[in-house]
Design a protein that fits this description.
There is one protein chain. The chain contains 7 helices and 16 strands. By secondary structure, the protein is α+β, with helices and mostly antiparallel strands. The chain folds into 2 domains: about 110 residues, 2-Layer Sandwich (D-amino Acid Aminotransferase, Chain A, domain 1), CATH 3.30.470; about 160 residues, D-amino Acid Aminotransferase, Chain A, domain 2, CATH 3.20.10. Strands 8, 9, 10, 11, 12, 13, 14, 15 and 16 form a 9-stranded mixed sheet that branches. Strands 1, 2, 3, 4, 5, 6 and 7 form a 7-stranded antiparallel sheet that branches. Strand 15 and strand 16 form a beta hairpin. Helix 2 crosses helix 3. The two termini are about 25 Å apart.
Amino acid sequence: MSLIPFDDRDGFIWIDGEMQPWRDAKIHVLSHGLHYASSVFEGERIYDNKIFKSRKHSARLIKSADILGMEVPLSVDEIEDIKRDLIEANKITDGYIRPVAWRGCEEMGISSRGTKTHVAIACWEWGRYYDEQKREKGITMRTSEWRKPAANNAPTQSKAAGLYVIGSMSKHAAEDKGFDDALMLDYRGLVAEGSSANIFVVQDGVLKTPIPDCFLNGITRQTVIQLAKDLNIPFEEARIKPEDLHNVQEVFLTGTAAEVTAVGKIDDISFTVGPVTRQLRDAYESLVRT
């Protein structure tokens, strides 16, 4: 992944109605979104100049903000137009695009009714999240000490920035121990997802994934489920206990950044990058470029 700082790049970022030079796109330090996590975002992949599932992402941005009581001052169609203009302005062929909406600095404190909702969109060239070796052998994961909260404890169906802090903490802790990512359990102790991606397992030829009742039902997750159905792969949403992992043969993650990423090990349990993972990975990689 690139080591170029994200505040010191060439190109353009769209912010509050203007296409600004990259280095000039700034917000005030007293923005409410920075202090109180009143912010939502999207992560989207660009393949061959086109955003995969673009309208679904734009609609989810608006829905996420609505869950937090924020009103995005743009329609789906307007967001789509801005994204197309931005990709053209930055001459991106294969990359990543990040829309974000946040409460501004008109008011400070827990009550934020007087704040304005700001919107910015940036995009940049970006390749695979993991290298070819990890692609073939699978990444390693370590179970986190942090748990995903219940749906009545946090806005779990919003792609809210504040929800990702335990993901970052968990991934850092896993990396400190030599692992690539963290396995997140939910508040009940059931398997939930990775630090920022949904998880699937294959047990005796059946594809299984946790029920998304306390974490985001990812767009890539939905896409892979539909691909499995199209390919007649047996599938079910299920409650998966950590001890159940001893009985599965394959594990993979799904997400915009991760795409379909095989898992080779969770804690001390090893898995193969097997036929179901490879079939769905190939199908997904073909789909995103059609």
